[in-house]
Every structure is written in C-alpha cells, then in structure tokens.
C-alpha cells in the first residue's frame, strides 16, 4: 500500500493558489482543531488540487502529514496491522495508521474515502472520527487520537459520479465539507509559468487548447492541472505543442490537429513522420 507518514512537515509550495474563502475557512478550522478534533472532507474532480491542498495545509501549519489510500482497503482492520508468521510463531505487525493517529498535530489524509474495496473497511474509521476519538484494537489495546490531530478525507466527485461511490451519509455527517474546483484560466497560467520553464506565449496556447478540450463533451476524461503541468514541463524542455499534448493526454494526432486548425493555432512543431525510424544512440 502506498501509505506514508512524514514526521517533518512538508515543504510549502510557493505557487499554490486557492480561493480566498477556502484559505480563510481552513485557517479557522485549524484554530478549531486546537480546541477539539476536526474532520474535513475535500470534494472535487480528479486533479483539481485536493491532495496538494491538504499537503499545503500541513506545510503552512508546520504539521506532520500522513496519507492513507482508503481506496485500496480490502478488509476491515487492515489500517491497524496484520498477523504475520515468523519462525513458526504468529506475531502482530502494527501499521502506520495507529502511529499517525497517536502523533500530536498530525494531518491525516484519507484518500478516496468513498471507494474502499470492501464496504466494511470503513467501520473502524467511524470510532476514530467520532467524538470519542479512540478505538479498541485487540492486539494494540485502546488507541487514542492524539491532541490537535486533523483528519482530512478526499473524494473525487464530479458529474460522472454515481450512487455506488457516494459516501455513506453517517460518515459524511462527521465532516466539514470543502468543495475544490479547477483554477480559473489566469491563475492556472501563473501556476504553469511559475512551476515550469514554459514561456507566457506557450502557456496561453496550452490553455487555449485545453480550454477547448475541457469543454468538449465528447472527451470524457477530465484534464487536470496535473496534465497542464505535464504539458508545460515537456514544452519547457523543448517539445513542441502538439507532441507535448499528445504524449501527456494520449489524444490522437488527427483529433488534435483538427482542433488546432479550428482554433487557428499555428504550431512551430516540426512535421513528425511516425513511420520513419532513426538510431537512438
Ligand atoms: N491550486 C493549485 N495551485 C497550484 N498547483 C496546483 C493547484 N491545484 C493542483 N495543482 C497541481 O496539480 C497537480 C494535481 O493536484 P492533486 O492535488 O494531486 O489533485 P487531486 O488530489 O484533486 O486529484 C499537483 O501537482 C498540484 O501541484
Ligand atoms: Mg488526490
């Protein structure tokens, strides 16, 4: 499992943007978390910045950060530990989760909380997230949530979401809910220019094409800030617009070319002849 715990706070991202309202509410929630435990649920489409916002929260408030992939849980109890066998004897191996919740001030991110592989896998989270903030684990005894711990959960939510992934109401009731959305054009441009080596003119072109793709109902995968960063990085390294988009989005060359034509975007890409080979030496 891709779970991790960073005992030293993550580094602050200098070019992370959020709506003023979101940053205000997060600061207030942090104050509250010093009085009593707080749970915050981030909802929003894939790649809109939920995970990075939670990391930025930990960085800003200089708190440790632990991330757990709830979407990968396939049975109850799995967060706490498992029985192993060593020299013919069984033993209990404790996992990172009990350690994270006993770390004072820890920001605990529960990723994809709405999609565990096993529906009962979330049962143990109920008591950790509820008022009593502790859970009895036979092998570990009473595990208590330490002071000032903040639980964040995130779930990808968009128009494509169906009932099967909706979060259990009883669980959702325990969270403050913060919707996150994609960045507006001008801000996304600032992110691209500041985080990659793309120039202003090229960043405009990238966002013009992505703007078109994002509003095209025939293209069913979402195009996130992660994608626009990937494209800009490739262009900053010298790739042309077409190649950068094709290799970042796996969109067909023909579709892209007709879109560029309709947008009157001229690219400086050299002609690529896919049936020509050369030695890669
Ligand atoms: N508001 C933002 N400001 C700066 N970078 C952003 C922002 N939102 C997203 N990114 C970048 O986009 C990428 C994807 O974001 P991520 O947090 O993984 O999305 P999510 O968890 O919603 O799927 C990250 O590399 C992140 O740095
Ligand atoms: Mg995420």
Report the bound ligands by name, code or SMILES.
Answer: adenosine-5'-diphosphate, magnesium ion
Output the radius of gyration.
22 Å
For this structure, the CATH topology of the largest domain is Rossmann fold
Instruction: Please provide the count of β strands.
Output: 10
Mean pLDDT comes to: 89
Quaternary organisation:
single chain
The rounded distance between the terminal residues' Cα atoms is: 38 Å
The CATH superfamily of the largest domain is identified as P-loop containing nucleotide triphosphate hydrolases
Residue share in helices?
A: 25-40%
Low-confidence stretches: 159-163
Proportion of β residues?
15-25%
| Anisotropy-based shape | elongated
- Category from helices, strands and their pairing: alpha/beta
Main CATH class of the largest domain:
Alpha Beta
Taking the sheet with the most strands, its summary is: 6 strands, mixed
Write up this protein.
- The structure is a single chain.
- The chain is an alpha/beta fold and 281 residues long.
- It folds into 2 domains: 4-179, 3-Layer(aba) Sandwich (Rossmann fold), CATH 3.40.50.300; 185-262.
- The chain is built from 10 helices and 10 strands.
- It has helices spanning 20-33, 50-60, 96-101, 123-129, 169-172, 185-195, 200-214, 225-236, 241-249, 253-262; strands at residues 4-6, 38-44, 65-69, 81-86, 89-94, 107-111, 134-137, 141-144, 150-156, 176-179.
- It has a 6-stranded mixed beta sheet with strand order 1-3-6-9-2-10.
- β4 and β5 form a beta hairpin.
- α6 (185-195) packs across α8 (225-236), α7 packs antiparallel against α8 and α8 packs across α9 (241-249).
- It is elongated and about 65 Å long.
- The two termini are 38 Å apart.
- Magnesium ion binds at residues 50-51, 111, 154.
């Amino acid at each position: 499992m891709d779970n991790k715990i960073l005992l030293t706070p993550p580094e602050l991202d200098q070019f992370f943007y959020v709506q003023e309202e979101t940053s205000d509410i997060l600061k207030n929630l942090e104050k509250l978390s010093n009085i009593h435990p707080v749970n915050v649920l981030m909802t929003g489409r894939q790649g809109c910045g939920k995970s990075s916002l939670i990391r930025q929260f930990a960085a800003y408030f200089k708190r440790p950060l632990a991330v757990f992939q709830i979407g990968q849980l396939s049975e109850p109890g799995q967060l706490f530990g498992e029985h192993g066998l060593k020299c013919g004897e069984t033993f209990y191996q404790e996992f990172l989760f009990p350690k994270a919740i006993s770390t004072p001030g820890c920001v605990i991110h529960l990723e994809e909380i709405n999609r565990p592989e096993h529906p009962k896998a979330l049962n143990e989270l109920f008591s950790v997230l509820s008022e009593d903030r502790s859970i009895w684990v036979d092998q570990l005894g009473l595990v208590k949530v330490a002071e000032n711990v903040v639980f964040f959960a995130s779930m990808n939510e968009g128009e494509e979401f169906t009932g099967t992934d909706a979060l259990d109401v009883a669980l959702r009731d325990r969270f403050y809910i913060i919707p996150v959305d994609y960045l507006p054009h001008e801000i996304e441009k600032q992110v691209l220019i500041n985080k990659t080596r793309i120039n202003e003119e090229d960043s405009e072109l990238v966002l013009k094409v992505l703007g078109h793709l994002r509003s095209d109902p025939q293209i069913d995968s979402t195009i996130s800030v992660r994608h626009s960063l990937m494209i800009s990085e490739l262009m900053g390294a010298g790739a042309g617009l077409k190649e950068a988009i094709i290799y970042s989005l796996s969109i067909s060359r023909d579709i892209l070319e007709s879109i560029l034509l309709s947008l009157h975007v001229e690219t400086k890409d050299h002609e690529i002849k896919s049936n020509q080979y050369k030695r890669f030496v």
